């Protein structure tokens, strides 16, 4: 059986614990991953400490050249990466290409690190005094990532951290760790010194070791909210800088004037693409007014019934299996709960079986109507191919629903009315807003981050926010007196007056 090992400088010790890696399309175990512990992390940290000072002292242009070469290598290997990703995660291969591509876009941004790292300078901030500021790397950073974007999210983190002069230790999801290891191998092939980017596998034991390690300066986490909150608290208590992105329940508001054919097309992709296992999926649709709701429902039903569920290599499939049998069971339980709570199960994806692949972890597309805010199935994240219709009375109701939800990752509004869209974007209490854009993941030179229980900490991923997270600002005030003194009273706080 294929073994996925840690990727650290030096030899990793034989694993005492392992975790199975499924092929969700066939339901077979295709590989095993070694689970590490604190002593393995110590080894990785020691290697990172050795190379980081020299890397930080390497001029940013040379650091950028490694990023350029890495980008070229990832592009050259994209098809294999996408196939490996799809086989471990279950998303269809085309979608896996997108996973790699959205991460590469952050690498492209990191290729511009010399420009992004230019500091600020004020000549003559006081008599004979200049002030300048610069951003310096933190040292060793760590990233803990979820299963659902095994290429994109690691690249969000290590692209920015390493370009800024840090060494980086990645702890990817133990459910699909193959691609993160391949990326680290390609990074060394691109010319990076060994030990600069390392991958340690593990579960809670390794996460705790990272959070407690005194030589790791910063931790970036993406995953579910309870764990994000735990990571945030424990990391901060250990004196680290921490950003921790959590779960989501994104709403799509449909105004009465929206182009419903366009909305149905967008919603089908945003709710069911990647089997709904995206933190920026749209699992809740909020039509405004009963008439809009009825018209939308009528168009949604045939569109959802036409969706093709298939194995991840099926070129015609809209989406593939979910990641594990446990996750499939949890999604089906949520549909049971919704039904018990009084939601109408319009299309039922429970018990779905794909002919020829009966052991795969498939869930059929599910549509629930008349979902209300008091239902647990509305309040919690389902993370599966399940679309819930929550009917809003009016625009105010539609602004209130996502604003009051515990999660605040993304939200979208579909309308032809610019005034309503503008009002909505300004008022809604959610971090990322789409206007007639169902999945508003900002491009790499902006930044990504949700609010409320979707994001703990105050900096976003990638872009200038990412750069800020992975560096600390040094501020220098300088004076070069030409002798004789200026007669000022040194006992009074300087005021530049
Ligand atoms: P998860 O929280 O189960 O796992 C995330 C990471 O935490 C993994 O590396 C895992 O090994 C580790 N982990 C698991 N249990 C742990 C524990 N008890 N203590 C410490 N660490 C632990 O998340 P997942 O199922 O891999 O990913 C799906 C979740 O991630 C969803 O909730 C989704 O919304 C969220 N997500 C959020 C964003 C975002 O940017 N906000 C992006 C992608 C995914």
From TrEMBL:
What residue stretches are annotated with the Aldehyde dehydrogenase domain?
16-476
Q: Which Pfam families match?
A: Aldedh (PF00171)
The record's SUPFAM superfamilies line, in alphabetical order, gives: ALDH-like (SSF53720)
Q: Which InterPro entries match?
A: Ald_DH/histidinol_DH, Ald_DH_C, Ald_DH_N, Aldehyde_DH_dom, MeMal-semiAld_DH
The alphabetical list of record keywords is: Oxidoreductase
Keyword check for Oxidoreductase = yes
Protein name (database record): CoA-acylating methylmalonate-semialdehyde dehydrogenase
């Amino acid at each position: 059986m294929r073994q996925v090992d840690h990727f650290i400088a030096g030899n990793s010790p034989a694993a005492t614990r392992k975790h199975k890696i499924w092929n969700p399309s066939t339901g077979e175990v295709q590989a095993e991953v070694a689970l590490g512990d604190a002593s393995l992390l110590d080894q990785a940290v020691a290697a990172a400490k050795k190379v980081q000072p020299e890397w930080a002292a390497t001029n940013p242009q040379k650091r950028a050249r490694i990023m350029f070469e890495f980008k070229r290598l990832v592009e050259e290997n994209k098809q294999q990466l996408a196939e490996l990703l799809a086989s471990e995660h279950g998303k269809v291969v085309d979608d896996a290409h997108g996973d790699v591509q959205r991460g590469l876009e952050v690498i492209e941004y990191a290729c511009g690190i010399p420009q992004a790292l230019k500091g600020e300078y004020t000549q003559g901030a006081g008599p004979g005094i200049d002030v300048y500021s610069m951003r310096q790397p933190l040292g060793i950073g760590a990233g803990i990532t979820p299963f659902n974007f095994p290429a994109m999210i690691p690249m969000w983190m290590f692209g920015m951290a390493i370009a800024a002069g840090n060494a980086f230790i990645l702890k990817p999801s133990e459910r699909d760790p193959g691609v993160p290891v391949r990326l680290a191998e390609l990074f060394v092939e691109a010319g990076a010194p060994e030990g600069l980017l390392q991958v340690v596998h593990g579960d809670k034991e390794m996460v705790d070791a990272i959070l407690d390690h005194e030589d790791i300066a910063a931790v970036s986490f993406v995953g579910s909210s309870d764990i994000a909150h735990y990571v945030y608290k424990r990391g901060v208590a250990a004196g680290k800088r921490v950003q921790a992105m959590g779960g989501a329940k994104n709403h799509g508001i449909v105004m009465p004037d929206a182009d419903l054919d366009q909305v149905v097309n967008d919603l089908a992709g945003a709710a069911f693409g990647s089997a709904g296992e995206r933190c920026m999926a749209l699992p809740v649709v909020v039509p405004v007014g009963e008439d809009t709701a009825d018209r939308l429902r009528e168009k949604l039903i045939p569109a959802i019934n036409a969706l093709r569920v298939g194995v991840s290599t099926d070129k015609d499939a809209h989406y593939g299996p979910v990641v594990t049998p446990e996750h499939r069971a949890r999604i089906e339980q949520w549909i049971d709960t919704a039904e018990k709570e009084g939601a109408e199960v319009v299309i039922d994806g429970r018990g779905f079986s794909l002919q020829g692949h009966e052991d795969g972890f498939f869930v059929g597309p599910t549509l629930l109507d008349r979902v209300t805010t008091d239902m647990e199935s509305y309040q919690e994240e389902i993370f599966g191919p399940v679309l819930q219709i929550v009917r809003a009375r009016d625009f105010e109701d539609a602004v209130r629903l996502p604003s009051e939800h515990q999660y605040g990752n993304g939200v979208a509004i579909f309308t032809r009315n610019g005034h309503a869209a503008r009002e909505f974007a300004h008022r809604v209490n959610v971090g990322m807003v789409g206007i007639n854009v169902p999945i508003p993941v900002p491009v790499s030179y902006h930044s990504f981050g949700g609010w409320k229980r979707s994001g703990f900490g105050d900096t976003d991923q990638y872009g200038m926010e990412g750069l800020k997270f992975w560096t600390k600002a040094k501020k220098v005030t300088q004076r070069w007196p030409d002798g004789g003194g200026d007669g000022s009273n040194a006992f009074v706080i300087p005021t530049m007056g």
